[in-house]
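[audit] Reproducing an earlier prediction to check determinism. Same input, same settings, fresh worker. If the tokens differ from the archived copy the diff job will pick it up downstream; this log only records the rerun itself.
[audit] input (248 residues):
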Amino acid sequence: MNDKSSYLHIMSKAAEKASHGVIRDFGELEKLQSSQRGIKKFADKSRNRTVEIISEILSRSRPDVHIMQEGDQISEEEVWIIDPINGMINFSRGIPHFSISISLLENMNASAGIILDPLRGEYYRCEIGRGAFVNNKSRLRVSGTKIIDNALIATNLSPEHDASLVENGVILRKIASISLDMAYVAAGKYDACIINETNLYEIAAGILLIREAGGFVRCEKTESRKYNIFTASSNELMEKLLSLYNTM
């Protein structure tokens, strides 16, 4: 197995190049006077172009590593997994909160990954056993919060489930980019996140990022072959969240 840092270099190069087009297209979307159908079509083209740019660089750099497409069954030992625009609704509606995420999976687990916030220039990276960092310098550490009262938590849950969390003292955030939610847990900005019915490509980099920053992750596969994921800055907070969630 090659040194993971070489994979991170490839991923960062691909994400950086793709980000220029994403930023340009986002600026165009803000000015676009069109129907919702026209806006969606433009946003979809931007997403597809981003996939093509990233895939071309990954394939040229490591042609032996398969690129996982949406709906693929993973059979190879090593695969790239791409989320070209995480927070697609935000992107298409001119809301400046979305990200590009790329991971290297080994036997279904991320061994290296990046999450790039192109508008803020925040580049989160991690590799297994070597920690998690932002912008190649600042090491990430979770907040370490142990109590649920006043814990800042991101969710995509139903209003009923969110209400139960709020009743127990949780402060909620719902800003619709799962990758950035998880990056913010790793950075200590959030204390936890609970995300239901999500896809592997949305969470692979974030899982490793949080673990390398000292956090805790519980991931459960659903009947629909998606994932429910619970992350927390401490084991104590994780246990309290799981206990509360199981009573909802």
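[audit] rerun output stored. Observation attached for the diff report: The radius of gyration is 18 Å.
[audit] end
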